[in-house]
Design brief:
The chain is an alpha/beta fold and 263 residues long. The protein contains 8 helices and 7 strands, in the order βαβαβαβαβαβαααβ.
Length: 263
């Protein structure tokens, strides 16, 4: 798997990754580790954390709910103790949210989506910024989505949260640029993952079509006519974290195969 990652040197770089024990986050952690970074990850799933620790024993992993500001504060205290500082924060945690028409979205579902997809990034960034400033600068990488630049029917809480991540990213880039802190957002498209399959299945059931038909509709409006891969997202993280990304900030970078519209 490491052969798929960009051959950049991140030796000694100190990185925190939220939701880093499964899916895209796990691949990001593997990529950073393969290129020499020292990593702390968190995840809400104790099982995923245990699995990560068994496969990546040198990655410090903790169970943390990043929608809980107090838990985030404790995690960053542990990061400072473990790593002695921070150079890069990857705000990866997110949920798909409800698949429903706006009038059917519950208060609970809306709040959960915004808390995890948006508020968690604020909580983590608030603690990371003083550490990255103290390091002389670094990089904050926020995971948005292609739904952060396109409308997404029956997924309004998710799309709203991902558009908000773009605004958060651009505001931080202006605020932190004088401190040599770069802030960018990555907008994954339809990543070949369990989450994508769950999203397609939920939309298929809501519209009364087959999974195969719904997946075809999703990919027909992608110029490459296929999913992108978790390693594609990880490689963009490597690029933005490395010296090659030294002049890139305030950008919303799509890694999507050119999605034309959301189904």
């Amino acid at each position: 798997m490491s052969d798929a990652f960009l051959p950049v040197n991140l030796g000694g770089m100190r990185v925190a990754v939220t939701a880093g024990a499964a899916g895209i986050g796990r691949t990001i952690a593997e990529a950073l580790r393969a290129r020499g970074a020292r990593i702390c990850i968190c995840d809400v799933s104790a099982n995923a954390i245990a699995d990560t620790q068994s496969h990546l024993p040198d990655v410090h992993a903790e169970v943390v709910d990043v929608a809980d500001s107090g838990a985030v504060a404790d995690w960053f205290a542990a990061i400072e103790s473990r790593l002695g500082g921070l150079d890069v924060l990857v705000n990866n945690a997110g949920v798909a949210g409800p698949t429903a028409r706006v009038e059917d979205v519950t208060d609970e579902a809306l709040k959960q989506t915004l808390d995890i997809n948006l508020s968690s990034q604020f909580y983590c960034t608030r603690h990371a910024v003083p550490m990255i400033k103290a390091a002389g600068g670094g990089s904050i990488i926020n995971l948005s989505s292609i739904a952060g630049r396109l409308g997404f029917t029956m997924r309004s809480p998710y799309s709203a949260s991902k558009w908000a991540v773009i605004g958060f990213t651009k505001s931080l880039a202006v605020e932190l640029g004088e401190h040599n802190v770069r802030v960018n957002a990555i907008l994954p498209g339809h990543v070949d993952s369990d989450r994508f399959r769950r999203v397609v299945q939920a939309k298929a059931e809501a519209l009364g079509v087959s999974f195969k038909e719904m997946r075809r509709q999703y990919l027909d409006v992608v110029s490459l006519k296929r999913n992108v891969y978790k390693a594609d997202i990880a490689n963009m993280v490597l690029y933005l974290a490395s010296p090659f990304g030294a002049s890139i900030t305030g950008q919303a970078i799509s890694v999507c195969g050119d999605v034309q519209m959301m189904k």
